[in-house]
Write a structure and sequence with these properties.
Length: 174
């Protein structure tokens, strides 16, 4: 009996070690993107605010337009990058790096109210400036958009849906 147990264990051993090795490295990769975030927290009342807008296609696309250049004096791309990874063209000159919005492990712990407060007021001592000219609604739209960078792929809102709807289905011969 003992030899049987031993042989079962031995035959399962490669599987167990594979799980151990790859399970761990998958976890490490997921957390690798977490930045050393020393950003001041928003005052409590602001911190606990939640996005009043629904993440509809319209809101997300409006946020995308502001993110990609609609916001004044410029959008978020030069610093946060077109894919939200915090690697815009100017990022390498900065001591404190722009936030990586694609990092799910980090973004899931930053509440909407905190994002709102930093976009409105900036982050002192860093290049993150304040966007005072944006209306509240526009900031929430941007937040709906930047959240899209970190949601798992299958939950992403389909930003191409509108343009696809415009494509008429060809009529099939009867
Ligand atoms: C000139 C460069 C620059 C521009 C432009 C810029 N950011 Fe940032 N942003 C930064 C930097 C640097 C940080 C990191 C600040 C820190 O760690 O405190 C940051 C951090 C943030 C954060 C993180 C807040 C937190 O609590 O972690 C948010 C949200 C953000 N930016 C949103 C935006 C949005 C939205 C825009 C465009 C409307 C924008 N930023 C434009 C440089 C920029």
């Amino acid at each position: 009996m003992d030899t049987m147990k031993r042989s079962i264990f031995l035959s399962a051993l490669p599987m167990i070690s594979l799980l151990f090795l790859f399970g761990r490295s998958a976890l490490a990769v997921e957390n690798d993107c977490i930045q050393n975030r020393a950003t001041a927290p928003a005052p409590y009342d602001e911190y606990i605010r939640t996005n009043p807008l629904k993440p509809t296609l319209e809101n997300i696309l409006a946020g995308k337009q502001l993110y990609q250049g609609g916001a004044k004096p410029f959008g978020c791309v030069p610093c946060h990058g077109i894919l939200g990874k915090g690697k815009g063209s100017t990022a390498r000159f900065m001591k404190v790096k722009p936030r990586d919005f694609s990092c799910q492990a980090m973004m899931k712990d930053i509440p909407d109210g905190q994002l709102f407060w930093v976009i409105r007021n900036g982050s002192q001592g860093t290049e993150m400036m304040s966007f005072k000219t944006l209306k509240d609604e526009q900031i929430w739209q941007i937040i709906s958009y930047i959240k899209q960078f970190s949601v798992p792929h299958h939950q992403k809102i389909d930003l191409f849906a509108i343009s696809r709807k415009e494509v008429k289905k060809p009529k099939l011969p009867k």
